[in-house]
Amino acid sequence: xxxxxxxxxxCMLGLAIYxxxxxxxxxxxxxxxxxxxxxxxxxxxxALMAGGTRRIELCTAEYILGSAFMFAMVVSFARxxxxxxQFGAMFLLVLASAGVLAxxxxxxxxxxxxxxxxxxxxxxxxxxxxxxxxxxxxxxxxRSVGLVRFAPxxxxxxxxxxxxxxxxxxFFQHFLASPRLHQKLFALLLSALCLSMVLAASSRASLLALxxxxxxxxxxxxxRGSRRAQIALILSSITLMAVGVFxxxxxxxxxxxxxxxxxxxxxxxxxxxGREDIWRDGVELVFSDxxxxxxxxxxxxxxxxxIGFPVESSYINLALEHGxxxxxxxxxxxxxxxxxxxxxxxxxxxxxxxxxxxxxMLVFVLMQSIFNRYLVAVGNPYSLWVLLLLVxxxxxxxxxxxxxxxxxxxxxxxxxxxxxxxxxxxxx
Length: 428
Known about the structure:
By secondary structure, this protein is an all-alpha fold. The protein has one domain (3-406, 413-420). The protein contains 17 helices and two strands. The chain has helices at residues 3-19, 28-50, 60-78, 82-102, 107-128, 130-137, 157-177, 181-200, 204-224, 227-246, 248-258, 275-286, 292-295, 304-307, 314-344, 353-368, 381-392, and strands at residues 141-142, 146-147. A hairpin with a 3-residue loop joins strand 1 and strand 2. Helix 7 (157-177) runs antiparallel to helix 8 (181-200), helix 7 packs antiparallel against helix 16 and helix 12 packs across helix 15 (314-344). The longest helix has 31 residues, at 314-344. It is globular, with a radius of gyration of 22 Å.
C-alpha cells in the first residue's frame, strides 16, 4: 500500500463531500456539482492505485444498481435522450468508485473523512451565514414572505433536511462508538447542530423521518437491547418527559411556528404541501404507458422540465425513470440491507450500537424518500455516504474489513464482525 497516494485519495474524498455541500445559483452550480463528482471519482481511482484493495467481486446491491442504470442507459439511448444516457454513465462511474472505496483496508478512515468534511461544512455555514441561521432557527415569520426557511450554502431546505438530518445520525453514531467523554460530547454537539439546521430549514419530511427512525431505535433497544442500554433509554425518556411537562407550552408554540402548521400552503390543511395531488399525477403517469411502465424513461428523464411537474417521492420517481421492476428491486436493496443490518447488530445477544445506527441511517433515507426524490442520488454529501454504506454493508468479510467490529473481550483488539459479513441481500 502506498501511503502518499492513499492520503491523496482521502483528501479528494473530503473535498468531494465538502464541495458537494455548496449549492450556488447560476451556471456555476453545474460546474461545482460536476467538480464534486469528479473529486469522488478521483478518490476511488487513487484508492485503487494505492494498492491494498480487496478482491472485487460484485455484491447483490451492486448488481441491482448497476443493472438498473445500464438498462436505463439503453432505454435513454433508444429514445434519443443523450443527456439521460450521460447521467446513467456518470452514476455507474460513481457506483464503481464507491465500490472501490468500500473495499479499502482503511475503510474506517472513510468515516473519519466524512465527519471531518461535515465539520468543515457546518463551520463554513456558521461563519458565512450566522445571521440567516439564527433568524431561521428561532422561527422567524415575515409578513410578505412567511416562515423564513434556512438554505445553508444555497442548499434547498428539503435537501438540507436529508444532508444534515443524515449528518446528525453520522455524528450520533460516533457519539455511541467513541470511548472518551470529550469525544462523545463533541460528537453530540455536532449532532445537535445538524439537527438544528434541519429545524432552521423547516424540513418537515426529514424531521418526521428522524422521528420515525428514533421510534424504531427505541423499540429495538427496549426489545433486544442490553440491560445497560435499556436503563439509559429509560433515563433519557424520563428526562425528555420532564422537560416536555415543564416546557410544554413553549415547545408547542415553537413547533407550530417552525413546522409552519398554520400556513395556508404548508399547513395541516394543505395536503402534505400539495404532494397528494403531485403523487396522484405521478402514479397516473407511471401507468399511462404500458411499455414505459416496465422500461422507464431513463435517468433524470422524469424531471419537472420534462413531465411538467415535480415528482416529490423517490419511489414514484424510480418507477418513472427505471420502470416498476427495477424501481422495486432498488427499493428492496435498501430495505433488506437495512433489515438485515439491524438484525445483525443484535447477534449473539450483544448490541453493536455503531452497526445499529448504520442500519438506521438507511431507515432514515427510506422514510425521507417518501416525500423527496433523493433515495438514489450522487449530487450531495449524504447520498454519497448512503451509496458507499449500501455497498459496504453488502460485502462479505473476505472482501472488506469491518469498520465497526466489536472489541475482543480477551485481548481488547478489533476482530471481524459477522454483521458485516455475508451478502445482506442474498440468502445466508
